[in-house]
Every structure is written in structure tokens, then in C-alpha cells.
Amino acid sequence: MAYIDEETIKAIRRKHPIKEIVERYIPLTKKGEDYWGLCPFHADNHPSMSVSTRLDMFQCFVCKKAGNVFNFIAGIENITYGEAINKLAQEDGYEVRSVEMIDPNLKNYEVMSLAVKYYQNNINSVLGENAISYLQERKIDRETIKKFELGVSISKQPLTPFLLNQYDLNTLIDLGLTSTSEKDIFNDRIMIPIHDLYGNPIGFGARIYQTKDSSKYINTKATKIFDKGNILYNYHRAHQNLSKEDSIIIMEGYFDVIRASTIGVNHCVAPMGTSLTKNHIQILKKITKHVILCFDGDEAGKVATVHAIPLLEEAGLDTKIIRLEEKDPDDFILKRGKEAFLEKIRNPLNVIDFKMSILGEKKNLNDIQETSTYLDQIIHELLKEKDDILVELTLKKLSTRFNIEYQTLNYRYLECKKNNIRTDAVKLPKIVNKCSNQYGQAVDNLLYYMIESPDVAEKALANVSMILDDKKRRLFNEIIYYYHEYGQIIIADFSTYLSTKTNVFDTFEGIFSLNLKREYTEEEIDDYIKCINYYYKKNIIDKLKADLQKETDPMKQALIISEMMKIRGVKEND
């Protein structure tokens, strides 16, 4: 793998001003100091994306997408950040096939890769015969085992001693492979490697296969590189099998995804036992506009589908649903075959048809009153639908099904729509915690000006007690480190530096998009720091008060009161 160092990456970026790159894809119009165009990262009808030649950055004021030239190319061409660097590097004559980014987690990926190979070696050894038999009974052949890098953990053949020959114990503990007593976390389970969005191994799903356990599956604990809320199983393979008009199919489990692959359906992902999150959806938006939900056929799968739909619709994704007659996709494909599943994919339900099905359950639609209630519920769901043709077709379908005049249903829909608009026009005031709201704004504004000014960064380092939010605290620390390392922050270069730190970059993106006025006063910065410190102090005192109420030992009560007085700045003899 070819390597491009950080200074070369900076040089490549500077040779390609962001305005020139963005104009390869969309037209820009100059307004004031900046250039504006339609944002390609959301459905934009009014130019909401700004391109700053001063900062060499772009940002959208609607979807909040922001970054440097590499972020823009990666987003618009649906490639990785490293591939975006590589694209411009080749234009500049660098003879590279790929780019290895400077990543603090390279050693962690190396450890996890060795663990994957170790478990694969186990499954291909004599000790792995039972695991192979179990998988073959489930109609998982050796080719599929190899494709998904399936392995097995064996208590008689522990992983930890092997890894301790090369790595320290704390690293293995931090990665969720080993306990503090130097024992393997995973024993006698089928090991399913989980990769990040770029294909780096970061964890495991582990399934029992020859023993009984209250936990059929266990996953790697949350680590520096493994966060279930930001990872979709099989994403790194699925997005390579996706054309622009294809749908990503979202399933619940590992073996559902693996089973679909055995019949040639390779664009499936799974959120690994968690509900679909907004982070998952933002990941999906980068590669597709179309999603098919194919959760389990039981009540829990139905609930998960209902939960996911509004999140997907809010993100502007075209959403379809598959409901299964069997327990899950794995079971369905095994019992009903490839063609039956492909037919489901070709003819998924739209959201309205799914809701009609759900709302019709447990109702006696031969009863006039229950039918009337059902139709009212469907009409109120149609009020959320933006596609007028779909609304009309649905009303006609209901008209035919229940032998009711279309005009009657349409009149009812229009009346509800008129009343709904009138109701929505009345906005209820939001009740917010004033202190908390001011604190959040103070943190955001301080971080913004820290990025702009080394003086503000140094002042913050000297005077801020602590930032409570983990992600913003990490950004605070990265800003300080970068200043101490380089002496200044060129925002486009800082964006490159943060590109391998996904959670921090997301926070940076949000702070950068605040677009505050460039000028600030010392009083403003002092006020932000005072607010942050006050809230931090208040947070600690509130916790101590709670501890004091629970504590019954007079000596310990006295210690808590003493600690509260110190924090408040009150001397004990005052």
C-alpha cells in the first residue's frame, strides 16, 4: 500500500482550490465574499451551500454538511476520504494505487485482523469440525464461510496467549478481546467479524453453536473503534454491490445478511441488535436514496419497522417495507426459496400500504364503526404524504375495497388537510432549561472561536474547568493539541487531520457550520468561559447534594458538605 504523508496531503489540497473542484460538479454564483450553489447532499431547491475561498472549505446551511476539498469529493462520488485524496494525487502525478491515512487506530486494526485470522484458522482445524458441521446444517457452505471470514473461538485454543506474544494486555482488554485476568472474552462461539465503513475489522458478533447459554449472541463491548450506533454490519461489502438506483436492504441479524448473500442478494446490512439510529441513516444517505426494511416477521420486527419509518422519511429516503410470513429472512429463504424472496424484493410495500396493513390488524372490518375508525386513521396518515399521486391512488384503493365513493373519501381527506394545516399553524412554545441552553451555546461558541484564534485556545486551556459533553471535550483537546503541534490552524488542513477521527469530525462539522461573526470581544470569550465553569460547578454540586441525601453516616455527610463548600469557594471558618 502506498503511503502519502500529511505534508504531501496538505500540498495536494492546496494545489486544488475548493471552488475549482466544486465547479466540476455544480455551478456556483458569487455573493459577497463567498460562492453559492445547490447542495448536492440533500434535495436542495434554493442555493444553500457556501464555498469559501478564504477558508478553502464548503458548508451547507441546511443539511450542515461541511469540510474541505477531500470531504466534498468523497461525499459526492460516494468514495472514502483516502480514495478522494488518491483521486487528486493521481491528477498531480503521484504514482499511487491507494492512500494510507495516518490513523491512530492502525495498531488496533492490526490486532483485530490477527484475531480474525486466528479464529479462521481454528475453524479450519480439527478442533473446528463441530463449528463447520453446525454452519453446514444451517446451509452455510465453505465458500460463504470464507467470504464472511467466519471463525470459531475455542476454549482449548485461546486467543489471548497468542496475541500477548506481540501486544500488551491493556490493548487486548481495551479492544474487548481479553479480561483483566488474561482470559478470552469469547469462548466456544461462532465468530462473525464486524468491520467499520472502510472495511477495517473492529469487533465480533459471537454465537453459541454447541452449548446452552442465556445469551445466544454477544457482541464486542463498546471500544475506541467499535460503536454499534455508528456501524452497520456488512456495509463495507454492500455499498460495493450497489448501483445508484438500487435499494439498501436493512435486516436485523448477521445470519439474515449472510443468508441473503447465498442467493445473490449482496446489498444487505444490519444494525446488530440495536434500533436503527439517525447515525445509521446518515451513513446510508451517502450511498443510496432507496431503502427496504426487511426486519423479522414477529411483533418485535413490526415495532422496529414502525420506529424506523419516520427516521428514514425525515432524512428524505424513499422507504419500502418487506413483511415476512416466517420468523426472519434466514428462515424465509431456507423454507420458501430464492425466488420467493426475490419476489418480495421486487414488490415491497410502500409506507402507506404497510400502515394500512398494521392499522387493519385486530379490527373487524365488517363492522361499520370499526371500518369508519380505520378509514379515518388511514386518511390522517395520508396527510403526512407529500406524493399527491400516491394519495389519490390510495384513496381509490380504499374506495374499491370498501365500496365507498371516491369523492366521499377525497372530501374527508381535504377537510382533514384543511384542519390539520390550521392546527399546525399554532406553534406551542418550547420549554427549555435556560441554564442548560446557555451552557450548550457557550461551549459551541467557544469551540468555534478556539478554531479561529490561538489566543482564544490558550485562554480556554488556562481557564476552562471541564467540558461535560464527551464529543465536544474531545474536539476541545484536539484543537489544543493541533495548536501545540503546528502553531496555527488552517481550517482545511485541520479538517484533514480530523478525517480519521469520525466522531470528532462530526462535532467539528457542526461547530464549523455555526458560521458566527468573525469578530469577537474579550468580554464575550470571558462570558463563555464563566458560563461553562458555572455549569460544571453546578453539575458537581447537584451530584453531591444527591449523594448527601442518600448518605446516613454523619462523618461522610460532613465530608460531602466540606467538598461542596470548597467547590462554592466558601472557607470552612467563614
- Integer average pLDDT: 84
Could you give the count of β-strands?
14
Tally of DSSP helical segments: 26
Strand order of the largest sheet: 1-2-3-4-5
Strand content: 5-15%
The span between the termini is 67 Å
Helix content: 40-55%
Counting helices, strands and paired strands, the structural category is alpha+beta
Largest sheet: 5 strands, antiparallel
SSE inventory with pairings:
Blueprint: H1 6-14, H2 18-22, E1 29-31, E2 34-37, E3 49-52, E4 57-60, E5 66-67, H3 69-77, H4 81-91, H5 106-123, H6 129-137, H7 142-147, E6 151-153, H8 160-164, H9 169-174, E7 189-195, E8 201-208, E9 217-219, H10 235-238, E10 247-250, H11 254-262, E11 268-269, H12 278-285, E12 290-293, H13 299-314, E13 318-321, H14 329-336, H15 338-346, E14 349-350, H16 351-360, H17 368-382, H18 388-402, H19 406-424, H20 434-452, H21 454-463, H22 470-486, H23 491-498, H24 502-512, H25 522-550, H26 554-568
Parallel strand pairs: 10-11, 10-12, 12-13
Antiparallel strand pairs: 1-2, 2-3, 3-4, 4-5, 6-7, 7-8, 8-9, 13-14
Helix pairs in contact: 1-23, 3-4, 11-14, 14-15, 16-17, 17-19, 20-21, 20-22, 20-25, 22-24, 25-26
